[in-house]
Amino acid sequence: MKYHKIPDEAIRRLPFYFRGLLTLSEQGRKNISSRDLADLLGFSHWQIRKDLSYFGSFGTPGRGYDIEKLIRQIRRILKLNVVRKAALVGVGNLGLAVLRYPGFRAYGFEIAAAFDNDPAKIGRKIGDITVEDVSRFRALKQRGIDFGIITVPCAAAQQTFDALAGAGVKGILSFSPCQKTGSEKVKVITIDIAMDLVRLPYYTPANRKRPKSGEQY
């Protein structure tokens, strides 16, 4: 199913709705209004209704949203109704943390392979995955791996991106914000932890320095 002229910000919010609905389902809830869902997630109720309206009409007047039905609809919209396999490149500290994170499975993702160019890491077994040499990228498509996760240093980011794109992946989640994308066929989402961190001081109260005795502001 293809959706046209839908704001990217609406797509960005759908996973938050999905996660909140999964939590409600685990709690045994059957229905929820847009206002209650907005209060739970920190969005406005009109924004939730508008975002969902791009894809159809899901609510029932007086009853709100059927939680299980809406979960199925969002899963279909985000194309999470089949298992999606990803390959992780860069098994350093960050890569190990991502590789060991158990939360991907709840959303239908499986990290099916891990790669590195360090001989000391190649062959190491992490859970059910054995770290492979990056020269094996060419086999990704045959292994049903459509997505890549980049956790390599900046100096290797562009080369890694090019190799994954050349191997036929359809999307890349990059923790290396310094690569320059060069393929219109590959969707890239970049996570820059440092850039998000430097926003925090703006939202926090300033630590005012107490004046010394006799000192004035």
Query: By CATH's scheme, which homologous superfamily of the largest domain applies?
Result: NAD(P)-binding Rossmann-like Domain
What string, H for helix and E for strand, traces the elements in order? HEHHEEHEHEEEEHEEHH
Radius of gyration: 22 Å
What is the overall number of helices? 8
Helix content: 25-40%
Number of strands: 10
- Unreliable stretches, pLDDT < 50, 5 or more residues? none
Determine the N-to-C terminus distance.
63 Å
- What would the average pLDDT be, to the nearest integer? 88
Strand order of the largest sheet: 6-7-5-4-8-9-10
Secondary-structure-based class equals alpha/beta
Tally of discrete structural domains = 2
Q: How large a portion of the residues is in β-strands, by DSSP E?
A: 15-25%
Shape designation = globular
CATH class of the largest domain equals Alpha Beta
CATH topology of the largest domain: Rossmann fold
- Sketch the major β-sheet: 7 strands, mixed
